[in-house]
Automatic annotation (TrEMBL):
<dbReference type="Pfam" id="PF04773">
    <property type="entry name" value="FecR"/>
</dbReference>
<dbReference type="InterPro" id="IPR006860">
    <property type="entry name" value="FecR"/>
</dbReference>
<dbReference type="Pfam" id="PF01476">
    <property type="entry name" value="LysM"/>
</dbReference>
<dbReference type="InterPro" id="IPR018392">
    <property type="entry name" value="LysM"/>
</dbReference>
<dbReference type="InterPro" id="IPR036779">
    <property type="entry name" value="LysM_dom_sf"/>
</dbReference>
<keyword id="KW-0732">Signal</keyword>
<dbReference type="InterPro" id="IPR013783">
    <property type="entry name" value="Ig-like_fold"/>
</dbReference>
<protein>
    <recommendedName>
        <fullName>LysM domain-containing protein</fullName>
    </recommendedName>
</protein>
<feature type="domain" description="LysM">
    <location>
        <begin position="33"/>
        <end position="80"/>
    </location>
</feature>
<feature type="signal peptide">
    <location>
        <begin position="1"/>
        <end position="31"/>
    </location>
</feature>
């Protein structure tokens, strides 16, 4: 196997999942396409890829105001061309998981990809098991989970106005200047915020607003009623006629301590008094700007399917009360172990006489898969990254170093991305020499 050279900054470390850097958007004409940072990438490697030489990494660092280059965060958007670094008339998609698209009048529907600019008049739509993160002025982020639709009404350096058509939207808004406005509309309501983390949900015929931190002012667009102020830890079912009543949100469910020590994918938690159902979410970062999976059920446990690749994840649990308000989040770091066989059948790893290893998985012949090999279960640094495998097996090696190697094969979507919904994984050991 070819030797893998480490850049001077070293690999991405999963225990250093920190808040994403502020979004910086170049608006100069003819600007080079932005780059959305992936796990394990460094300024050294990105500069070599985008600027033909890794020696220009200080230039990229300065232009994008990156602090510590070894802590480059997944989802950060980097720009390489000169020009104003202030969003003007557009936002940027910073992360996509699964199938999501953009609709714009007079333009064919377009699949969302990281780095794609979003303008007023655009509508973002997420499919089943899909998530989109949108970066807007000042480093604020908007996360659109599965089966949701969001219209961009206005967006520039001073105004962000969005309309939730259906589903859910979760916003993390940085503290703004007095002349800046951030508002999410849903039905006949407008929710204006400043320096806050909140959710708006229009699901199963019920419209709710829930504030995790900060403050939200809810006002009917007709302004026939006085505004409702939702403060930290409170929410309300938002009624289109009659007054809406704020109430406290349920506390966060707590994981049973020994559940994280078990080598399985079932996470058990202590039931919350008054809870009717629960939601589990998994993400690649602590701020949940890179979500990858969720499920909802009665509890008091959730089992994550084998199709989701093994590795470290951030886990979030919430409880729903009888009014269907979603409670405060309980977050933690968990590890998903490898499950041999993936979606069905059995995966195998067979050592060959020449020192190579043949890996096979129970996939579909002729289907395209992405195949990855790494030394660590989080796949932070890839030794093999093959995006187009039209088979159900790969031969890798020979290996210069002994130890455990981890692999995963995921079904490729029509646009070439890897799907977390259909995948296989495993590991094998190479004897030390």
């Amino acid at each position: 196997m070819a030797t893998t050279h480490q850049p001077p900054f070293g690999p991405f470390r999963p225990h250093r999942l920190l808040a994403c850097a502020a979004l910086l958007v170049a608006t100069a004409a003819g600007a080079q396409s932005p780059h959305v940072v992936k796990p394990g990438e460094t300024l050294w490697g990105i500069s070599g890829q985008q600027l033909d030489t890794p020696l220009r990494w200080p230039e990229v660092q300065q232009r994008n105001q990156v602090g510590e280059p070894r802590l480059l965060q997944p989802g950060t958007v980097l720009y390489f061309a000169d020009g104003r670094l202030v969003p003007e008339g557009a936002a940027v998609v910073t992360a996509v998981e699964g199938r999501a698209s953009r609709k714009r009048a007079g333009v064919p529907e377009q699949v969302l990809t990281p780095g794609l600019p979003i303008q007023a008049g655009d509508t973002l739509i997420t499919g089943t098991d899909a998530f989109v993160t949108l970066g807007v002025a000042g480093g604020s982020r908007v996360v659109l989970p599965s089966r949701s639709a969001l219209e961009v009404l206005a967006i520039d350096a001073n105004t962000v106005r969005l309309r939730l058509i259906e589903g859910r939207v979760e916003s993390q808004v940085h503290k703004q200047q007095p002349n800046q406005q951030f508002e999410i509309r849903a039905r006949s309501m407008g929710l204006g915020v400043r320096g806050t983390h909140f959710r708006v949900r229009d699901e199963d015929g019920v419209l709710t607003g829930e504030v995790i931190s900060g403050e939200v002012v809810v006002q009917r667009t007709a302004q026939s009623e006085p505004p409702l102020v939702l403060r930290e830890g409170r929410g309300a079912v938002l009624l289109e006629s009659g007054p809406s009543q704020a109430q406290g949100l349920l506390p966060a469910p707590q994981l049973v301590p020994e559940t994280t020590a078990r080598n399985d994918r079932t996470f058990r938690f202590t039931p919350v008094a008054g809870a009717q159902t629960y939601r589990l979410q998994l993400a690649r970062d602590e701020r949940f700007l890179l979500p990858v999976y969720e499920q909802r059920g009665p509890g008091p446990s959730f089992t994550v399917p084998a199709e989701l690749p093994s590795g470290l994840y951030q886990l979030r649990l919430t409880a729903f009360d009888a009014a269907r308000l979603e409670g405060l989040p309980g977050d933690g770091t968990v590890y998903l172990p490898t499950v041999e066989g993936g979606a069905g059948g059995q995966s195998t790893s067979t050592a060959l006489p020449d020192g190579r290893v043949e890996v096979r998985w129970p996939g579909i012949a002729g289907q395209r898969y992405t195949f990855e090999l790494a030394r660590s279960p989080d796949f932070a640094v890839l030794l093999v990254n093959e995006p187009a495998v039209y088979a159900t097996g790969m031969t890798v090696g020979p290996f210069a170093l002994g130890g455990r190697y981890h692999w995963r094969a995921r079904q490729a979507t029509p646009d070439g991305a890897a799907s977390a919904a259909t995948g296989f994984g495993g590991s094998f050991d190479i004897p030390a020499r």
